[in-house]
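User: Teach me something about this protein's shape.
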Amino acid sequence: MTSTATKTYASDVAFTDTVKSIQARKGSRPAYARMEAGGSWEQAITGDLKREIESQTSVFIATANAAGQPYIQHRGGPAGFLRVLDEHTIGFVDFAGNRQFITQGNLEENPKAQLFLIDYAHQRRIKVWGTARVMEGDEALVRRLMPQGYRARPEQVVLFTVTAWDVNCPQHIPQRIEAGDVREAIESRDRRIAALEAEIERLQGGQPRAHEDGAALPRS
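Assistant: First, the predicted structure itself:
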């Protein structure tokens, strides 16, 4: 049986001894120790997480080079551009961009990476730790992961292997709604209004609707 002193947890990927020391000094260590004892962070992609990942249209990927210099890159695409391939692997096509290749260079020196996903509409953020690698020249994999009908030039594929993940609280996340979702909601409202107006006219026996001042409204 592993002793408590040497036991490791999934959250140790972020909670180093230095971090735990700071938590102890600032009073939050007991709460996180209870979290660890209760099972710590998830290490496999659950069904719920899969649905959240594949609904995203945006993701940030953090890497660092061999010298420890960090870099964050944004990647986006239509819902589904992020694909869960199995319970430990996320894949996506890396579309051609400014061709700086900083992320790829960092990963060749240091494969450790993190994905940061944020859902502004529901004020929810997910942090995913792991390692990543770039797959060049795998046309079959590109075809498998390329979003159908999306107008972008695929360059290569990034495969991310999940080590651990955690969901943060919604505090301080501004609530923003995707323009496409707003447009769909307005169109749905307008269709509902049109249907209700048609039903009112039908119930009135085909008579024109009356304005609030009693005057008849012209037929549209």
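Now, about its shape. The beta strands are 58-64, 70-76, 83-86, 89-95, 112-119, 124-135, 154-168. Residues 208 and 220 are 9 Å apart (CA to CA). If you'd like, I can walk through any region in more detail.
User: That's plenty for now, thanks!
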